[in-house]
Amino acid sequence: MDAHVFRRIAVNLAGLLGHARIEKIFRPAKDVLVFSLYSGQRKVFLFFRHGRRNQALFLSYAKPQAPAIPDSEVMLFRKHFVGRRIVSVAIDWPQRRILLRFMGQSDCAGKAQNAHDESGLIHTDLHGGHAYGESRFSVLLLDMREGALALDGPPADFGAFVEWPERLEPNSVLEDASRIWERFPAVTPLLRKTVAALDASEASALLADLESESSGAAWGDTWVYAPKEGDAGETLVSAWPLPETLRTGLRECAFDDALEASAQAWAEAVFAHIADERDKARVLGQGRELKRLKQALQKLELEEKRLN
Question: Does this model's pTM top 0.85?
Answer without folding.
Answer: no
